[in-house]
Amino acid sequence: MVYDVLIVGAGCTGVMTARLLSTMNCTVAVAEAKCDVAMGATCANSAIVHAGYDAKPGTLKAKLNVRGNALMKELCRQLDVEINECGSHVVGFGDEDLAHLKTLYDRGVANGVPDMRIIGQEELRRMEPNISPEATCSLWAPSAAITCPYGITIAAAENAATNGVDFYFNFKVTGASMAGDIHYISNGDETIAARYVVNCAGVHSAEVAEILGEHDFPINIIPRRGEYIVMDKICGDMANSTLFVCPSERGKGILVSPTVHGNLLIGPNAYPIEDADDKSTTAEGLEEITAGALRLMPSVNTRNAITSFSGVRPTPNIYDFYLKNSDQVKGVVHAVGVESPGFAASPAVAEYLVSLLQDAGLELTEKENYIPTRRHDGNHKQFNRMTDEERVAACKANPAYGKIICRCETVTEGDIIDAITAPIPANTIDMLKKRLRAGMGRCQGGFCSPRVAALIAEHSGKSLTTVTKCGGGSWLVSGRTGCED
Ligand SMILES: Cc1cc2nc3c(=O)[nH]c(=O)nc-3n(C[C@H](O)[C@H](O)[C@H](O)COP(=O)(O)OP(=O)(O)OC[C@H]3O[C@@H](n4cnc5c(N)ncnc54)[C@H](O)[C@@H]3O)c2cc1C
Question: Which single residue of 4, 129, 371, 431 could bond 26 by disulfide (Cβ 3.0 to 4.6 Å)?
Fold first, then answer.
């Protein structure tokens, strides 16, 4: 089969583009190097649907952030993904910062950000009682929001799969050739044929551009890692909205933010790294973000930390996103250097990429039978989001909903079986963790992981020894140690 469009990379950029194309009459495939969607920067970021005052007016970043903010809220509602329209503050400490806030305010006005205000200390303290007494002012942007970046990306991917998009996982693009107008994209073993190719490979997008046939590609990617600490839910109400400091040339600085799941998030720092896939955390890095968080909120106590993680930014050698049709290789569209606010902007980036495909000659018409939900039978609601009445009905219909597997996050056997049998089947421990939060609570999977692994084996017809944490060779058990009964 020759697809109309092949998208390389299943982060938010690739998945939002695939989902948008799935609303139209065309055939679409997504090739992803890893075993799931949202395995790159989309999985590990601050989860902020930025309001849009950061980027310089007139840039793609500015335009697509503001539109993406509105579209993201709409999409979360459509696919029933949690979104908290909590707003954000850029917190100032003194007159120099106040001048900076005014610059950001003017940018926001130019970019079309609604309802921003610069507020004084008293109002800031009323809105955020735990803010540092040293904080004197803030830029309040009520249109900023928080959501779950991998949650909405998984939901969008399921919606795309429900509408006919084919996902090829564990398909790392390593080679490409053309015959006539058809691209043959290969992972060394298999080949996918397509008329158009969209490069959404995140931190590897400049390498993929070369693989697709670009010579002297003008964009370099500098991988820049950011580390985070996740605090227990007992800290979840310490901040009512996202709290930034004034940005510097190193980025938006260390923030304190609630999460949609009720935790408190602190981080990130920003350091260039050699290995673009190195997602480790460091003792010094975690100390640095703790100090940054304490500056904003002195009552943050890292004894309540439950885990840490890091994400890698695909920082380009230009200021803006590089979203362009290739002028060297026919039918190739690049989404390169999509760093922050790339998540917030992603539904709008998708619109832009689809318009580039149309400029390149792809003809699109609206699909009459498009299904707007994650699955043919609707948006499955997880047990921990059901009302009491819905829980009773769910348990009556299927007793598996009455069996709690992850006690920290109230994830049931019924939820796990649903995810294993979803349009994109979840068949690793981390896939279930990302979809359901099994293992994301205070015990970090200490109790539920063995039971989750057993359910994966039982319901996906695998042997327990083949179940992995996150694909590849990340097996959990090698066999029995005791006597067989
Ligand atoms: C620390 C940090 C904080 C951030 N905070 C925010 C925020 O709060 N708000 C916001 O809007 N943005 C934020 N961002 C930016 C945002 O996360 C990114 O802009 C966005 O996730 C980019 O998505 P993507 O799909 O382009 O890339 P990715 O999510 O990285 O996806 C690229 C995919 O391509 C795949 N791939 C790579 N090479 C190949 C290949 N050869 N073959 C097949 N597949 C391949 C990868 O496996 C990966 O899954 C942050 C980023 C970081 C790192």
Answer: 4
